[in-house]
Design brief:
The protein is α+β, with helices and mostly antiparallel strands. The protein contains 6 helices and 14 strands. It is globular, with a radius of gyration of 19 Å. The N terminus is likely disordered.
């Protein structure tokens, strides 16, 4: 199956946008590919999230999506706007290859001092990101969050304090967790993968009524290269990027999915026990393309 190629989009919306700390945010072109190898013991239904979408943050100018052996794939959009592919993997070795050409922001804008939005003034689609969720038990972190953000201006500066605290308190160890763990568990054990640190920060933000959501995708020059997770917080009337695994916010991000937590953004859900992901290879390279 091959997806359509998109052309003709003007990237000036990002290239010439004025931000608080970055007066000019330039675009970069990335080539992203992923190869997944499954061993299937019996026919298994899969729901995948492997195709990025175009929006104000990124433009997908070309894409391909193939499976071996070939099977029927149907695609839909979930309640968060993510593209979901459905298929039934046949017994034997099953391979998925995706590749994309994406235009995205080279740098990430920041906005110290951006104000807290009162609940009654939040847009309705943002409201679900205030509530506790399966892996972000924000109702358990109110006292800690208020202690962390003491003396910080409400809004962006509070989130900055939370990110600093997560970086100091939780050790980032890539590959240390194969399955999602909750914010409470990460807090107790003191280490985790990118997803774990992001979910703890999300829970802390929501506990002081700042909407926050989990983002999953690719980060240019990530070491070691893999899928990556970070989060966004809604402040000053828009979403801002935060990443507890990075000492300095970097651009070159390609979003595949966003949601309340890991339960909403898994790159694949399998239904049954007869399917195992043996390997996943991710490549993110910069360069020009037509």
């Amino acid at each position: 199956m091959r997806m359509n190629k998109f052309n003709g989009w003007d990237f000036d919306a990002i290239k010439h946008t004025t931000h608080h700390n970055n007066p000019r945010v330039s675009a970069m072109k990335l080539r992203v590919s992923s190869d997944l190898a499954f061993q299937v013991d019996e026919a298994t239904a899969l729901i995948l999230m492997l195709r990025p979408f175009s929006d104000a943050r990124q433009w997908v100018s070309g894409s391909s999506y193939s499976v071996t052996p070939n099977v029927q794939i149907t695609e839909s959009t979930d309640s968060y706007g993510n593209f979901c592919q459905r298929l039934v993997a046949p017994p034997g070795s099953f391979f998925i290859h995706t590749s994309f050409e994406v235009i995205t922001a080279e740098t990430i804008d920041s906005a110290p001092g951006a104000h807290f939005i009162e609940i009654q003034n939040l847009p309705e689609p943002v409201l679900p990101y205030l509530l506790p969720s399966r892996y972000c038990e924000s109702d358990r972190f109110g006292d800690l969050a208020r202690e962390i953000v003491t003396d910080a201006l409400p809004g962006y500066d509070q989130v900055g304090k939370i990110v600093d605290w997560v970086q100091r308190s939780i050790q980032y160890i890539p590959g240390s967790s194969d399955s999602p763990v909750s914010a409470v568990e990460v807090h107790h054990r003191g280490y985790g993968v990118c997803r774990d640190l992001a979910q703890l920060a999300i829970a802390l933000c929501r506990s002081i009524s700042i909407p926050a959501r989990l983002m999953v995708g690719y980060l240019y020059q990530l070491e070691p290269m893999d899928l990556h997770a970070w989060f966004e917080a809604y402040i000053g009337g828009r979403w801002y990027v935060f990443d507890p695994t990075q000492n300095h916010l970097r651009g070159g991000r390609v979003v595949i999915a966003s949601g309340r937590d890991a339960a909403d953004v898994s790159i694949y859900h399998q239904f049954g026990l007869g399917c195992t992901l043996n390997s996943m290879d991710v490549q993110v390279n910069s360069g020009d393309f037509q």
